[in-house]
Amino acid sequence: MLVLMIRRPRTGINTMGVAMHCIILNFFMIGTLTLLGGLATADDTGVTTGRVAGGIFVPTGEDGDIAKISFVLQLTGSVQFRDRIGAEAEFNWTPINLDGSLHPSGQINEARQITAVAGLVLTSSKLTGEHRSPVAYLSGRLGFSRIAVRSDTTTTVGGWIAGTVAATQTLPPFSFPIRETENAFVLSPRAGFMIRPSGSTLVDFSVTPTFLFHGGKITTQIMATIGFGMLGTLD
Known about the structure:
Blueprint: E1 2-6, H1 15-37, E2 47-59, E3 67-68, E4 70-80, E5 85-98, E6 109-123, E7 135-151, H2 160-166, E8 178-195, E9 201-214, E10 217-233
Parallel strand pairs: 1-9
Antiparallel strand pairs: 1-8, 2-4, 2-10, 3-5, 4-5, 5-6, 6-7, 7-8, 8-9, 9-10
């Protein structure tokens, strides 16, 4: 996942802006699948999948100094509009597990990251309702990412996660914490395979490397997930 960081003025929390951002991301994913799904020909059934996955989020480098392995929730939808080529949209939500040992007891440190991407997917064989053999896939997606950190402490550690924590400021006693956000464009590769245990059910195993480019530095994140879903058609 390739991320180009965009900095915003430090203006505090904008609840309406956060809500609108999430709405735009959802319309982006839905619109991409609808548009590309309409390209299916009469010979192509427009096979669709919907998957819900959970897994681990692994920060590395400077982010690994302040964040630990965390849980990630992943929602994925895809549509096949040619023999082995299709479109895929994905939404990830990660409650980042910050390392509490770096801060005194009682300090508030919370981080959340969301990512929405959509793009093309290439499969090893055509998805059909009849064949149950495993299907491998490789996809490349483009989209947006947002991280939000709520903290009442500062840190000198850099990085996509820690750098956002560092943007908060130490507050006087009895003050409310500061929340900082960063937005990013995302380019995301993904590799995995799906198996069909029975009927139209799917089990999906995937790995997504994430490469973040910010301030002249490169940070890597990795997501590994196991998902469950259903197979359908656009008919």
